């Protein structure tokens, strides 16, 4: 017999019934929304876990910049060609006159060189960074295998910030050079091929105003 | 072609092996420099991706050592 006198809303859930999940879609989030950035991002605003060698206590990293990822296209294509080259050499039979042991070593050495090329090209892009903090701008350059150059200038020494985006590729992909004139020891900083140069220049100008 | 230099009575493949080992030895030094370079880079800038990069540099070094060992054995 159905219990028609019981209010449906006051029914207690039975143990077998599945509880409906609470409606959380429209609740306000307790934390402000943050844009998620990858570690490989070329334009990383307010990075959380970024640190650098000469960072001072209380110094906050506001921007971490690298060259736009599109600049990697050249070496990536070259790496693909290098990876495919042994197949072409095998088809043409260039090394067929050599003993099999030499052929094997040549192929292995080729892949070793290719892996080093890929690693060096990636490291060159990944670690050549420009950092803007609340106190200064830092340009970290690894010129070759064992030579690095770290330049910095305080925000209050910056005199002028400009940017340029010449060329089709730079306009399409929205990247360019940000040139910063300073009264510090190094008079000009060039943040080369960084994404969104207008925004970078604006952020640095805002920091100058605050100082 | 017999593969032997007539005057010195040395196998041409022995010379090729020595040259290959010298080149691979030089590459091993380069691989060591790469490991040092990666250490330098990861200590200069930390972005949270240091461990995989260091691992790759060590793998590259180990691969170079293995190739030298293989070259000594099979050439």
* Strand order in space, largest sheet of chain B: 1-2
N→C terminal distance of chain B: 19 Å
Indicate the structural class of chain B.
mainly alpha
Radius of gyration of chain A: 28 Å
Overall number of strands of chain A: 9
CATH topology of the largest domain in chain A: the name is: PH-domain like
Count of individual helical segments of chain A: 4
Principal-axes geometry of chain A comes out as elongated
Cα Rg of chain B: 18 Å
What is the straight-line distance between the termini of chain A? Answer: 79 Å
Shape of chain B: elongated
Biggest interface goes to:
A-B, 32 and 33 residues
Mean pLDDT of chain B: 88
Indicate how many domains the architecture of chain B comprises. Answer: 1
CATH architecture of the largest domain in chain A: Roll
Strand order of the largest sheet of chain A: 1-3-4-5-6
Low-confidence stretches of chain A: 1-33
H/E topology pattern of chain A: EEEHHEEEEHEEH
The SSE string of chain B, one letter per element, is EEHEH
Mean pLDDT of chain A: 82
Compact description:
The complex is a heterodimer of chains A (211) and B (75). Chain A has helices spanning 73-92, 100-127, 168-173, 197-210, and strands spanning 43-45, 51-52, 61-65, 129-133, 136-144, 147-154, 158-164, 175-182, 188-195. Chain A has 211 residues and is an alpha+beta fold.
Q: What does this protein look like?
A:
The complex is a heterodimer of chains A (211) and B (75). With 211 residues, chain A is of the alpha+beta class. Chain A has helices spanning 73-92, 100-127, 168-173, 197-210, and strands at 43-45, 51-52, 61-65, 129-133, 136-144, 147-154, 158-164, 175-182, 188-195. Chain A folds into two domains: 43-48 and 56-67 and 128-210, Pleckstrin-homology domain (PH domain)/Phosphotyrosine-binding domain (PTB) (PH-domain like, Roll), CATH 2.30.29.30; 72-124. Chain A has four helices and nine strands, in the order E-E-E-H-H-E-E-E-E-H-E-E-H. Chain A has a five-stranded antiparallel β-sheet. In chain A, strands 7-8-9 form a three-stranded antiparallel β-sheet. In chain A, strand 5 (136-144) and strand 6 form a beta hairpin. The termini of chain A are far apart. Chain B has one domain. Chain B has helices spanning 12-44, 50-74, and strands at residues 4-5, 10-11, 45-46. The model of chain B has no long low-confidence stretch (mean pLDDT 88). At the A-B interface, strand 2 and helix 2 of A face helix 1, strand 3 and helix 2 of B.
């Amino acid at each position: 017999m159905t219990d028609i006198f019981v209010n449906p809303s006051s029914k207690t859930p039975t143990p077998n019934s599945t509880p409906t999940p609470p409606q959380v879609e429209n609740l306000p989030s307790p934390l402000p929304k943050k844009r998620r950035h990858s570690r490989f991002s070329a334009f990383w605003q307010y990075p959380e876990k970024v640190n650098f060698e000469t960072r001072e206590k209380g110094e906050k990293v506001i921007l971490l910049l690298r060259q736009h990822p599109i600049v990697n296209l050249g070496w990536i294509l070259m790496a693909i060609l290098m990876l495919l080259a042994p197949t072409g050499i095998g088809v043409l039979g260039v090394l067929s006159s050599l003993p099999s042991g030499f052929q094997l070593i040549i192929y292995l050495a080729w892949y070793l060189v290719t892996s080093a090329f890929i690693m060096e090209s990636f490291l060159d892009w990944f670690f050549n960074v420009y950092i803007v903090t609340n106190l200064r701008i830092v340009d970290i350059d690894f010129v070759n295998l064992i030579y690095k150059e770290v330049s910095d200038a305080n925000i209050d020494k910056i005199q002028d910030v400009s940017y340029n985006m010449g060329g089709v590729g730079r306009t399409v992909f929205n990247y360019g050079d940000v040139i910063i004139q300073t009264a510090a020891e190094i008079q000009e900083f060039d943040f080369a091929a960084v994404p969104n140069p207008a925004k970078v220049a604006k952020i640095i100008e805002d920091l100058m105003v605050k100082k | 072609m017999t593969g032997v230099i007539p005057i010195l009575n040395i196998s041409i493949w022995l010379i090729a092996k020595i040259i290959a080992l010298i080149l691979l030895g030089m590459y091993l030094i380069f691989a060591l420099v790469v490991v040092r370079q990666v250490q330098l880079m990861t200590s200069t800038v930390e972005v949270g991706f240091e461990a995989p990069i260091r691992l790759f540099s060590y793998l590259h070094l180990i691969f170079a050592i293995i190739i030298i060992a293989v070259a000594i054995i099979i050439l």
